[in-house]
Specification:
The chain is α/β, with parallel strands linked by helices. The chain has 16 helices and 22 strands. It has two domains: 264 residues, Aldehyde Dehydrogenase, Chain A, domain 1 (3-Layer(aba) Sandwich); 185 residues, Aldehyde Dehydrogenase, Chain A, domain 2, CATH 3.40.309.
Length: 494
């Protein structure tokens, strides 16, 4: 029977259809980044043995789930979506409390989670093989897709409900069983995903949820012989470790990692649009997105006008309590992340860049001891500066004057990353050329580098991705299935 508990109602692992807490042992405390004295949740810091138990549970459910019809699998996704929709306000508030995303933005993430579940429920209805005509007489040729088995999902804290769902929804509807390991900074939000499927009555052991350190849980997922496929989102450093370990063990592996995303503003751009694109991409959600804008290349003819307008708009952004609907920029997720961003700001100043705006640690009204960083603009930057080379993952952007399109694209591509890129222009030739010239998996014109639509594939190039099958869209199911080619020839008869 479905579980009628509301959120947040469990601070435990979810294995074999039961919410369980290991006896004794350490715990993971998630604290509010806007009020670090507030403990939002406390989950088990589980051992490798607990991960093995979760994996064994998923393996045991493989056959039964694989033989369940795609229509029935999709029904569980729709029921989970209904649960999340019914708890939308509480989940958005939990996101704001646990990882600091402004509640207005968190609400959009919850809606994305609902939409993703419903989308893959529908895709599962008609997603299958192809039937190209055979060249041989009396032969019927077609393909069939089969689930791969047990999937290990290692997910980040910055999109704590959307990313787990955009991975597990196609995996589940394709017939795989799941072990989900969330980031330790946002376990309560990820637990809501397990709770939604528990409420939906998903068969026991099909989805298993385990909290704990990556060195224990994540390592077991990537190395276990019983895990057939691994999907990871997080930092490039961690992703390369996951990729090497999982690939060495012969698993299918997918890693989506960091970005250093450029925006080009040419001399025909609408300044108001360009400024909205910049602030939305660089500062909304505190820059805590792998697709956040980090570098801006502005044609010299409009540089002063653009910079003035950008400065004014940035100064007006509301930094504060993420539970306040008016807040646009919340806190960094934790003290270590806060100090890292502050270190990049100080490093930019030491390297000779001009701190044009922001850069301060803030104490917004009504909030004490939170990890708030003022939206920050650097100018007079050199492309070899750390500020322009490394992913900062905070509300910091470097703005650079360029002579024209060729220089802008050359600099935009001068990075080890290739996730998202945008250009603001009213020139059709620049828009069309940019699509082909830029080295990025997501290409935007007159839009922020952030923001993606779930019916399109998502993934990067170069060090932003393992460049295996993309996430989201119908193509996502390709990653979680094996395709067989079938030939049937009719023999005998008249």
């Amino acid at each position: 029977m479905p579980n009628d508990a509301r959120v947040p109602s469990h601070e435990a692992n979810y294995i074999d259809g039961e919410w369980t807490t290991p006896d004794g042992g350490e715990t993971i405390q998630s604290r509010s980044p806007s009020n670090p004295d507030e403990v939002v949740s406390e989950f088990p810091s589980s051992s490798r043995e607990v991960a093995q138990e979760a994996i064994a549970s998923a393996v045991a459910a493989q056959e039964g789930w694989a033989t369940t019809s795609p229509h029935a699998r999709g029904g569980y996704l729709r029921d989970a979506a209904d649960f999340i929709e019914s708890e939308r306000d509480d989940i958005a508030e939990l996101i704001a409390r646990e990882m600091g995303k402004p509640v207005s933005i968190a609400d959009g993430e919850v809606q994305r989670a609902v939409d993703l579940l419903n989308y893959y429920a529908e895709v599962g209805r008609d997603y299958g093989g192809d039937a190209p005509p055979s060249s041989a007489k009396n032969t019927h040729a077609y393909t069939e897709r089969e689930p791969l088995g047990t999937v290990g999902l290692i997910t980040p804290w910055n999109y704590p409900i959307a990313i787990p769902i955009w991975k597990l929804a196609p995996a589940l509807v394709a017939g795989n069983t799941i072990v989900l390991k969330p980031a330790s900074s946002s376990p309560a939000i990820a637990a809501v995903v397990a709770q939604a499927f528990d409420h939906a009555g998903l068969p026991d052991s099909v989805l298993n949820f385990v909290t704990g350190p990556g060195s224990e849980i994540g390592d077991e997922i990537t190395k276990s012989d019983d895990v057939d496929i691994v999907s990871f989102t997080g930092s490039t450093q961690a992703g390369m470790y996951v990729y090497e370990d999982a690939a060495t063990e012969g698993k299918r592996v997918q890693c989506e990692m960091g970005g250093k995303n450029p925006l080009i503003v040419d001399d025909t751009a609408d300044i108001e649009t360009a400024v909205e694109v910049t602030t939305g991409g660089a500062f909304a959600a505190t820059g805590q997105s792998c697709t956040a804008t980090s570098r801006v290349y502005v044609f010299e003819d409009i540089y002063d006008e653009y910079l003035s307008a950008l400065t004014d708009a940035t100064a007006e952004m509301v930094v504060g309590d993420p539970l306040d609907p008016e807040t646009e920029v919340g806190p960094k997720v934790d003290e270590a992340s806060f100090e890292e961003v502050r270190g990049y700001i100080e490093g930019g100043k030491r390297d000779g860049a001009t701190l044009h705006h922001g850069g301060r640690a803030l104490e917004p009204d009504g909030v004490e001891d939170g990890y708030f960083v003022e939206p920050t603009i650097f100018t007079d930057v050199d492309h070899d500066m750390q500020l322009m080379r490394e992913e900062i993952f905070g509300p910091v952007v470097g703005v650079m004057k360029v002579s024209g399109y060729e220089e802008a694209v050359e600099l935009a591509n001068d990075t080890k990353y290739g996730l998202s890129a945008s250009i603001c222009t009213n020139r059709l030739d620049h828009a069309k050329e940019f699509v082909g010239d830029i080295e990025a998996g997501v290409v935007k014109v007159n839009q922020a580098t952030t923001g993606i639509e779930f019916q399109l594939p998502f993934g990067g190039m170069k060090m932003s991705s393992s460049e295996t099958t993309k996430e989201q869209g119908r193509q996502a199911i390709d990653f979680f299935t094996h395709e067989k080619a079938v030939y049937i020839t009719h023999v005998g008869g008249d």
